[in-house]
Amino acid sequence: MCGPGLEPGHARLIELAPTTYALEFMAQHIGIVACSAEGAALCYRTICLEGAELLGRHNHPEVSLHTHSLAEYMKYIDQGDWTGVAELMMSSAEKLARAGADFLICPDNTIHQAFDLMAHRSPRPWLHIAEEVAKESKRCHFKRLGVLGTRYLMEGPVYPEKLKAAGLEHRIPGENERSRLNQIIFNELVYAQFLPRSLAYFTEVIRMLKDNGCDAVVLGCTEIPLLVTPDSSPLPVLDSTRLLARAALRKAVG
Fold first, then answer.
1. Taking a C-beta distance cutoff of 8 angstroms, is the pair 108, 77 a contact?
2. Measured distance CA(177)–CA(173) in Å, rounded
3. Around Cβ 16, how many Cβ atoms within 10 Å?
4. CA–CA separation, 102 vs 31, rounded Å?
5. What is the pLDDT of residues 176-197, one digit of tens each?
6. Among 146, 167, 63, CA closest to 107
7. What is the pLDDT of residues 91-109, one digit of tens each?
8. Which of 186, 217, 221, 245 could form a cystine bridge with 46, CB 3.0-4.6 A?
9. What residue ranges define each of the domains in the chain, with the CATH number in brackets?
10. pTM of the entire structure?
């Protein structure tokens, strides 16, 4: 436990015995604004498991998570009411701020379409999932990304804006493929159903993106990495869920 006066992101030596010292470190408190359960759980699990690589055995930053139900979000998403989505995100942000979170992340790509409607008035700063994907793409020297996710995400502005700003091209599947991927996500993946036939379909679509000149694929729904793995994908994967979790870890430990 940290003693009085130790701020998040700072460290100091504490005396354990007359000649033994250890580094006492207080990582920043991560707040997770969740939407769908499986993606949020993967993000949380990644922070906890990979935190030990940075902070030591069984250790990770403090994490709090709040979520409104997916049904509440879908009520607004289906109406194209992104202001309504933003208000749900803000509600979670305020609760997490009161719980002590130092900064916020949202392991849901689709609702980032409402990000700019609320981030400027949020009680805590945010990391943006598509920005973290773009950073990793640049680090890996990818040039053209295939983007997979919900229909709202594939057809929306979240990735086009962030990838263009990073000098990256992108492609999305055709209309029929977008519809089928959307069905798999909402009828199966959010309910933790990961079926071989659905993996085969995702693999087929990724292969089509590869044929269209893509050199990597964005798993732009946070449940997709639970179905599509690096070993099963015809292209290198950009796992938006784990990339966001790792960025949060780096920020938390400073």
1. no
2. 6
3. 10
4. 7
5. 999 999 999 999 999 999 999 9
6. 63
7. 999 999 999 999 999 999 9
8. 245
9. 31-128+243-253 (3.40.50.1860), 130-239 (3.40.50.1860)
10. 0.90
